[in-house]
Specification:
By secondary structure, this protein is mainly beta. A hairpin with a 5-residue loop joins strand 22 and strand 23.
């Protein structure tokens, strides 16, 4: 082989390797434990053999937190932590864990003593720069006629470095569920839950916003189910993609809309004859991928609902200009949901369920080409029902089973 040809082949191989590493790696939970895999075609590696929930990569990608512990992403001993909802700071390997006793912050690499604890906090939502967080709190106001607790719901803001919390909004018998800070850090979006009602929340709540520096809360004129993967901020600008529509049944009355968070104007990207959920922005903000099927109307559960849900496929639509949706998947053996874009915009990771209820991760090109399996059977757990295909009225919380660390540059 000539030296020039050898150098060209070596460069091509190096470029191919760079392309592979640009896809990052995934962590996923199978019935036999927690696994990781470099995309697109790295060998699966088991980190440990105990089934866990909610794997989440740290910002550096060095750690994976899960419900009750943390472990190095490339292997090592698992370290126990308090069991509860775990959220990473956006730009540091610092972990906030919410339990019934409040929220505590733990630092890498020792994970021993928390350096900040809020006993009355109901979870933590961090600002884009990681310097502040907001949380829900409740203030007891005595007992009602039947002995039930009477209370004020509050949304509070505090600095990670410490200091006194500031109450942003407060209302009698009203719960506040924080959702996200806007990318410009000006506003915090949240849901309002009348009378702290789990039943009311299950049918969807209206979205509100409050200035991060304090001020009056404002309704956004749109509501959604309270599942975070059914809404997504645009990668740039001040736009929010949202799965709109009331009612807990996800097989009817759900559309994808884009809300302008500056002027609160709204436009729909999908028609009323289609149920579309789980929008995901492409990295350049020019496309949105989602899961969709024909609207089934008012049906009950059982085999009829299972048949309807099995028709879900991955679609994509342009966010500006012509907006004719494009179907990306078409394999009738699977129900397709939860699309996510690679950092380079050339691939989509998504979830599949076969007719027997077996769930797995798949990777395909951004135009739907060459879908390949990434994981074995995922360890799905239905939140309220034993039928994994049903989930909660057709909603499956896929993110309890996997996470994707995507390099951004």
């Amino acid at each position: 082989m000539r030296r020039r040809e050898f150098l060209l082949l070596a460069c091509a191989a190096a470029q191919a390797q760079t392309s592979r590493s640009d896809l990052g790696f995934v962590a996923y939970v199978q019935r036999d434990g927690l696994w990781v895999r470099d995309l697109p075609d790295g060998a699966p590696r088991q980190l440990f053999g105990s089934a866990v929930e909610n794997p989440r990569f740290s910002p550096s990608g060095e750690w994976i937190a899960y419900d009750g512990g943390v472990i190095r992403a490339r292997g090592g001993p698992a370290l126990k932590l308090p069991k509860g909802e775990a959220v990473w700071l956006p730009n540091r390997d610092v972990l906030a864990i919410a339990t019934d006793g409040g929220v505590a912050l733990f630092d890498a690499p020792n994970w021993t003593t928390p350096r900040l604890t809020r006993k009355d906090a109901g979870g933590a939502l961090f600002s884009p720069d990681g310097s502040q967080f907001v949380y829900e709190a409740e203030v007891e106001k005595g007992k009602g006629p039947g002995g039930e607790p009477m209370r004020d719901g509050q949304l509070r803001r505090e600095r990670v470095a410490g200091g006194s919390p500031e109450t942003l909004v407060s209302q009698y018998l009203m719960g506040f569920e924080p959702f996200v800070w806007t990318r410009d850090s000006r506003f915090i979006l949240y849901w309002k839950d009348p009378d702290f009602s789990v039943s009311v929340q299950a049918d969807g709540l209206e979205l509100f916003r409050v200035p991060a520096g304090g001020g009056k809360g404002q309704g956004l004129g749109v509501g959604s189910l309270v599942h975070r993967d059914l809404l997504a901020l645009a990668p740039t600008g001040n736009l929010l993609a949202i799965t709109t529509g009331g009612g807990r049944e996800t097989w009817t009355g759900k559309r994808i809309a884009v809300l302008n968070l500056d002027n609160l104007s709204r436009r729909y990207l999908t028609g009323s004859d289609v149920v579309a959920i789980a929008p995901a922005w492409s990295p350049d903000g020019k496309q949105i991928a989602y899961s969709a099927a024909k609207d089934a109307g008012q049906i009950g559960g059982g085999p009829e609902a299972q048949t309807v849900l099995a028709r879900r496929r991955i679609w994509a639509v342009n966010t500006a200009g012509p907006r004719a949706p494009r179907q990306l998947t078409s394999d009738r053996r699977y129900r397709d949901e939860e699309p996510l874009w690679s950092a380079d915009g050339q691939h989509i990771l998504f979830c599949r369920m076969d007719t027997a209820g077996g769930a797995s991760l798949w990777l395909m090109g951004a135009t739907g080409d060459h879908p390949v399996p990434v994981s074995g059977p995922l360890a799905l757990k239905g939140p309220a029902f034993p039928d994994t295909w049903f989930g909660f009225y057709g909603y499956i919380d896929w993110r309890t089973t996997f996470d994707w660390h995507r390099p951004t540059g």
